[in-house]
Amino acid sequence: MTALLGSIIEVARFVAVIFFAIALLEAYLYVHFHLYDRRWFLPACVLAAAAAGLGAARLWAPDRFFELGLAAAMVETALAFGFIRLRGRYALAYMMLAPAILGLTLLIIYPLCFEVYLSFHDLKLTTIMQWSRTGALPFVGIKHFVKVFTSSPLSEVSFWQLFLRTIWWTFINVFFHVTGGFALALLLNHKIKLKGIYRTFLIIPWAMPQVVAVLAMRGEFHSQYGFINITIQRAIDWLPLLGKAGLHPIQWLTQHPFLTCSVINIWLGIPFMMVVILGGLQYGASAFQQFRMITLPLIKPVLAPAVTLGTVWTFNNINVIYLVTGQAGGTEDADIMVSALYKASFSFYRYSYSAAFAIVIFFILFAFAMAWLKWTRGTESVYERD
Questions:
Q1: Which of 77, 198, 247, 296 makes a 20 to 30 Å CA pair with 105?
Q2: What is the tally of structural domains in the chain?
């Protein structure tokens, strides 16, 4: 009971801090949007910012007392001139967007900037204590980016082996996601009895939490108690000729981890594509005879972004591989780039190397997305095409 109460108090404190930060931000914007034309506005803002910077420096960085105060004053001067130039326009819009911008800054922009910083410095077990004491890290330039391409993030598999395996993993998964989703969407787009029930059952793998779905399917591949091996064994008992032909229960999780992960991820990904494509089919034509000339062009603007999202999700899908094979340091036969990145960071503690690795993965996906959308003209609607 005490532990539960302590957890509730911690959550309440976190929520209170969030509300306080938002209230402070909104008060700041309100004052700057409504008092920008007062004579004392600019000097008061600069003095208040300098005082806040000095106070923060005194608490957290006494050795940078005047630096932080001066930096805060300079930033506030620039912001104050910006508010004076706006002259109170768009106040409501900016105040409504401010909490979201603050959240994006804290959750996305700051971590991304810090990741870039780490990739050009050297953070690992031997330097982490120096960083915690001084806040400084050795600068190594592009050393970690070179290592990404020339050294192995794991113990057995090279970067290029992981890259090719990731490309193969992404291709076969997205291919079966799209083809399977297309086939099911075409079937559901016809007038059939109990269509709503079929659609509900087909969407369950995507609707349920992925951890639950993956672990449930992992159990079906168990060497002794899994449904697949039990089915194989019963088929052999019923028809012994199959056993003589070489059919036998398989150690799926140890002998074929990559295949097992692929099958499970295909099962998980088909419902998403089915829903997207079904929406496009219901918006456009539905006759199968008109598939090539009408249906496919109509759903192309829907399909191209869906394939982009599916490719990015599949390329970065560590959940299935981690949960199926137990990637706390186990087999490397099923590893793709993102699972190797996870191991490099949390098993081998190569933090800066992992940051550089993550940036390389980001640019690979960014280049693919831009090329794919340009080639498919996926950002255009049907009516914008020639």
A1: 77
A2: 2
